[in-house]
Write a structure and sequence with these properties.
Biased composition (Low complexity): 20-51
Number of helices: 5
Oligomer: single chain
Region (Disordered): 1-51
Shape: globular
Helix content: 10-25%
Radius of gyration: 15 Å
Number of strands: 8
Length: 202
Amino acid sequence: MAITALLTVATGCGKDEKPSSSSSSSSTSSSTSAASSSSAASSSASSAAPSGTAPLADYSNLLVTAADIGADTTLGPPEQNPGGVAGVAVTFSNTSKTHTITDLLVVFTDAASAAQGAKDRPASLGKYVTGAPQPFAVGTNGIIVVGPSPDNTKSVTYVVFSEGKVVVDLEFDSGPNDAAPQDFVLDVAKKQDDAVKTRTTS
């Protein structure tokens, strides 16, 4: 999954460059695939936070909950400030682990930096999903990419947007030729957007 690359980009940024966020899937949706590898984030990314990101802290209150995703959705333990970058990451999955959503939030010092981070993000997504970015009507600079993974082992739906000072990366992984339903993706993205919008302090 793309957490490692995102955080590597973040730590290489100056104050005007930003990272993004990522997610893991639901049980009630008809997506179908083996889970993504979000736990490698902190070990693979630099521990020096870029100047454009916020102070390290507990940002888990900004995440959506398993109840927001679906009835039989399980929640992995949140990873605080993965890779030494301000934010939080978590993976949701159904009980059989065939559908996952990886949710990564990266917190910046200001909304302009976060918006630029979301705008720059599509250039790095080709490593994780094969498809052309399309506009996505959530947050600022929202995009969505739907397609197979480069190795054709799973279907991937990747969503990126910013909300205020936060960049949200949501990655929905499922079985080959069984992409997450678009209405489900939109619902999860809106819930995450609302959570950030209502819980972020200025």
